[in-house]
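Reopening this ticket.

The earlier resolution said the output was attached, but the attachment link was broken on my side. Pasting everything inline this time so it's all in one place.
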Amino acid sequence: MQYKTELHAHTSEVSPCGELTAPEVAERYIADGYTTIVVTNHYCEYVIDKAGETWEEKINHYLSAYRIMKDYAKDRICVLLGCELRFVGSANDYLIFGLTEEFLITHPDLHKMSLKSFSALAHENGLLIVQAHPFRNGMTVVSPELLDGIEVFNGHCNHKSRNQIADAWAKQHGLLRTSGTDFHHPYQSGVAGILTEEPILSQESLADVLKSGNYILHCAGPAAERDGMTDMPAKY
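Inline output:
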């Protein structure tokens, strides 16, 4: 399998914890040989509610990094829109795949919903919900029926994500499995993602591939060495 897709990456324009701009992140992933990157900036109270007075101001700020990267990268790497959603009053993070600008613009303040209500909305609109690093300190497990999948490999080496426990949890509950770098810092590189036989070039193909399980989980770098994980098939 030759095509690489990153499923978890942040940029400094939107995520306060991100240290590289959207063009810098794009250049890093192009150099690392990725075909596709899903921009999953934080969608949460401390990002959205401080981004302006009106919803138009807030959502345009949120979408800015995705738009910048897409315009900058052109046809050198496919840039898809995602998000890392955190609901008010919770420390859990959820990677959302299959998003469009129109959906985010017309459904304001998703972070003020509950997981249960958002899960219903997401599945009505063909979105996938993957709980990110569910066994990191401060996270809590949730009802598996509200999720589509689990991030079983998180490549951020500064966090103890307990990836092997996440993998076991996904298998126990029959959830799809994903891998993501959780890219934030200059010293990180594309150590995670999924490998496919065909390039992922649209939201539809991303959703289809994830639901099919026909991909390899890419697991490399310090976090993989620490947790004893290597590239492995997504199907059990």
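Reporter confirms the inline version is readable. The chain has one domain: 3-233. The radius of gyration is 16 Å.
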